Amino acid sequence: MTLWTMILKMSEGLGKTCAIFFLTLLFSLPLGMIVALLRMSKVKIVSGVTRVIISILRGTPLMLQLLAVTYGPYYLFNISVSRNKLIPVVIAFAINYAAYFAEIYRGGIESMSKGQYEAAAVLGYSKAQTFFKIILPQVIKRIMPSITNEVVTLVKDTSLAFTVSYQEMFTIGKQIANSQTSFMPFVVAGVFYFVFNAIVDFVMGKIEKSMQYYK
Model pTM? Predict the structure, then answer.
């Protein structure tokens, strides 16, 4: 198999890799905010349970979570596994990354001074208005470097979908490597991920720069 043929075959899975990436961000970013608010709840049971869930998600391998979400329903409840493996893959990724984003959000929110809440109350803002109009924009600006780091990590983590035989780019590369007894598919995959990450890093850098209001 020529190098060009190899690249074409692996590029077929690039769309699925991108699907995992974008769908994970689409669901995990808002879900992370919800989890962060539950984690900060004044109701001890709610915050306690949320803290345990976050600890489990952050303390166990994403690979294990992928296997649990994909095959767990069959082994536990005898529910047939969906033929479209993109669904369980995205669910596992979204839940896992939501746990990380939740802690990033929480750190950003708790870093805000209480004086801003008090000043907003004096001006007649409700708690919801204070959070969404005053606090959240500042939090997003502060946490962008941490969010960027997680997004870059997500690009590389998409390769873990091979554990459930989802035909994304790395899975196809691994199959070609096994059939051709060649390490070249892994080199090609590495170049793909490097370029993908370079694009993501560039875009996130532009977003961060646009938030530098006073520079």
Answer: 0.89
